[in-house]
Design a protein that fits this description.
Distance between the termini of chain A: 35 Å
Shape of chain A: elongated
Keywords (chains A, B, C, D): NAD, One-carbon metabolism
Largest sheet of chain A: 8 strands, mixed
Family (chains A, B, C, D): Belongs to the adenosylhomocysteinase family.
Protein name (chains A, B, C, D): Adenosylhomocysteinase like 1
Strand order of the largest sheet of chain A: 6-5-4-7-8-11-10-9
Largest interface: A-B, 75 and 74 residues
Oligomer: homotetramer
Radius of gyration of chain A: 22 Å
Number of helices of chain A: 10
Order of helices and strands of chain A: EEHEHEHEHEHEHEEEEHHEHH
Pfam families (chains A, B, C, D): AdoHcyase (PF05221), AdoHcyase_NAD (PF00670)
Cofactor (chains A, B, C, D): NAD(+)
Chain lengths: 292, 292, 292, 292
């Protein structure tokens, strides 16, 4: 992805941030300017929150035809992906529990109406376990052993490490492939746990990504490349940068027409009152863009 | 608020950020280190998003006994406050329109299911206008003239400038105080528009702030003062700082017990995988904490 | 309420149906035709479902300033009132449990995303208990003894019998009136339970009824009286009747203009296909008008 | 479906009621007792409300991969099916309009936060049209002509008559099958309207029915047959009956275990107070079982 001394990076999986790129930079091994487009606001919201809000439903339906109403679900991790998944499932009548390591995200889950629990507190009685953590071994063999017959487990977070799938490849357990991407793992007592996509990303394996989301991502990348290419000598050093906010806003504005959305323009008086340029950027860099 | 060379600032109104403090710093007139506690994550979410989600309902009910179901409402501004107000009203059966100047927030409103319009497109037929912008003259006399009989207008944003109330103090309009904080402004043709709190903040004037929110705010301020006081020489210069993320997380963790929320602890292996300290902070500084 | 041989009955409390009127009829003691307007569709939905969806929030806020987000609430009874209360609280971030005696309503609660429990399973850890049953002693002294410090209990159902308030008037408990309609009942160990309106109806005691709801109710009653008065000899005998569906529809149609709602008219071809008169009634008598 | 003098009827399409059976009875041509299981409470809610709430999402995703967030959708008909479809789409961020012929259902749509419009008012700008009416020619050629490029139309109601598909089979329009169940109908100016399942039922053609729903339906039918077979001479004449409420409740109670739902039992004192048998039935025949 190097291109004449510039580098844009799209995190291939949703890990919250392209950690390795920052590590490269920290180690002094980054030889070109890089732009972390993964953490631009617009791309983040669409790739993670808005897209996963729909693809969790899509992925579960296409693989298992499960009814959501009344199901007990535990969502591990309440970042953007976890927020999207839990909101969608709750909206369709599921009872959702959340696990978190971060007290701020944990408090957000409380305020959004989710009981924050340790996985062990609910693992015996939930119908569905969904990992959205960016972490590894979030669901381990011990917990899989305690899941109930007919329950299912899947990964919406990143990579294939969140569920300890390797621990299920032992002689006493039988695997039965019931359809593509759907395995029944069978315990000696006959208990079946339904594993989706062998623990790889459910939304990439078993659902589709709407073209609208792809358009957001592609636009963000293209603008980042244009910026790196056109930037005057010295604006960017061998470091990792976030997309300039104005470009982030530009990506969003290009996609508003789809929704027939009409923005309001600041008057001169208002722009002066707010200390803003009428064309943006409209927010300080540390602004967080809560979704709701 | 200066205290032996330290300064913490709580924005007296919700304006998104304590703009004037940054202006002071920029002008080189800040003579002590200052901490912008207003923009700490936990305080922001509670003061703005979570609190306003409830107080918009409370404020409207206590003043007007209005039924929310079926009402057409326009929320001006889709920041934290606007997000809270529109989510609550939608949840109770109102039809909500949103106005925005920022394309990112506008796109968020679209994805949350709100039609993004210019105020002029809907002003004639809405039942309620709510300002949440941090801006001035968002609703002007021309628009007030076009509001329908019995409609109401109120401010959840900041100060008393968002609605151009001064423009309503002209001879041809009659003001009738129907109860505390509630005025009927009467046009020559008999049309009445209901103005709440004379355009001052509805939630401060006409509803209550739950003690839980006050606890979050007070804890944040106290920790900021302690940090500034205890910090080793040189950690803070004459500049504006955000609350260290670890303290932000600490505020949140102190309030989790109320909800009987149980956080998960990272294993050593997981902490290493994520490159995190097991005790936090858990997120990079640019992380945005979407609410949903 | 007798009027020249006619009788319309509005249930003074929401008990699901004016039971005593049917008992009178069964006993042969009804001396005039009577119309059970309480169970007309339009009135039922507004008095119970739509009104309580808002007044539970209003009543709790005005009396206690409680924050809804993250609160654990148990709603006893999942009829129209219970459905309204639980939907509103869930929408504002509370975690809601439901108790039911009727398997159909219990299954509805499941599909709406509420855990159906026995009161004893959750009484120790909930923050709020709300009765909506039409029954008596739904919360008894034994359960009140087990509620936690600072929790609250109120009645949205009917009468003042749902919470066994009499059982709290014993020497070892101290009552402290902290504001009108709000009592702290104090146990010997210092535990306080907050009792609202002394167990009478929260929405009648501590919140307001929107004029729109009153308009629906008054219109329904007036039309019932007109029908009974104008009906040809013999249409109504000494029995209890439901409001004719066409009148029920007429009440609704009179209130649509408020919402600028535009109904569609059947074409002749469509009316014939459906076997309906173009002016209604549009549904068979047994139709149930699910709200969602 | 006659069986030794008994007849149970499951409406093959969701038309609100098995109209023809009542017509047969009215015409005196029914030669055996018949049970209208279609209108038993439990079956109705699951087949129509709860099932369609999920299958509208599933059907649209599998056929078109559309993103729901921000889409403008019109749902024609606000019965059980329309309520399910509009609630689900709204929950996922779509902006939903509703058309209705019945003022009661229209008022319900208002209170649920949907703008009630005539189809012609919105047909030019909506992205998706969904019919749920039980009626015919609800979307006619004139309206299809005015739909915008890229918009889609589908039927969730009954049969294949709701969209006037026949009117699209004219020489100037080109049909292009882009995948199974998905046709692009192309106007001379290049405009494409996406027609799903050629106007037949989307949920039967393009999504799956969860086994839980099938279990509810099968149980209801089986119990109806058992009742008709076992009933003492004379209980049922050559007429159409609804499933006895107690059996309806029994169907529900058999399915509660799936959700680990725990019903509350009436005490003797409570049963007496309510005038109910402790084992049910718990509601009068005219009770309507609002869902929310």
């Amino acid at each position: 992805m190097t291109s004449g001394g510039v580098l844009t990076v799209v995190s291939p999986q949703r890990v919250g941030s392209p950690t390795w790129l920052y590590q490269l930079s920290k180690a002094g091994k980054l030889c070109v300017p890089a732009m972390n487009v993964n953490d631009s606001v617009t791309k983040q919201k669409f790739d993670n929150l808005y897209c996963c809000r729909e693809s969790i439903l899509d992925g579960l339906k296409r693989t298992t035809d499960v009814m959501f109403g009344g199901k007990q679900v535990v969502v591990c991790g309440y970042g953007e992906v976890g927020k999207g998944c839990s909101a969608a499932l709750k909206a369709l009548g599921a009872i959702v529990y959340v696990t978190e390591i971060d007290p701020i995200c944990g408090l957000q889950a409380c305020m959004d109406g989710f009981k924050v629990v340790k996985l062990n507190e609910v693992i015996r009685h939930v119908d569905v376990v969904i990992t959205c953590t960016g972490n590894k071994n979030v669901v381990n063999r011990d917990q899989l052993d305690r899941m109930k017959n007919g329950s299912m487990v899947c990964n919406m977070g990143h990579s294939n490490t969140e569920i300890d799938v390797a621990s299920l490849r032992t002689p006493e357990l039988t695997w039965e492939r019931v359809r593509p991407q759907v395995d029944h793992v069978i315990w000696p007592d006959g208990k079946r746990v339904i594993l989706l996509a062998e623990g790889r990303l459910l939304n990439l394996s078993c659902s589709t990504v709407p073209t609208f989301v792809l358009s957001i991502t592609a636009t963000t990348q293209a603008l980042a490349l244009i910026e790196l290419y056109n930037a005057p000598e010295g604006r960017y050093k061998q470091d990792v940068y976030l997309l300039p906010k104005k470009m982030d806003e530009y990506v969003a504005s290009l996609h508003l027409a789809t929704f027939d959305a009409h923005l309001t323009e600041l008057t001169d008086e208002q722009a002066k009152y707010l200390g803003l340029n009428k064309n943006g950027p409209f927010k300080p860099n540390y602004y967080r863009y809560t979704s709701r």
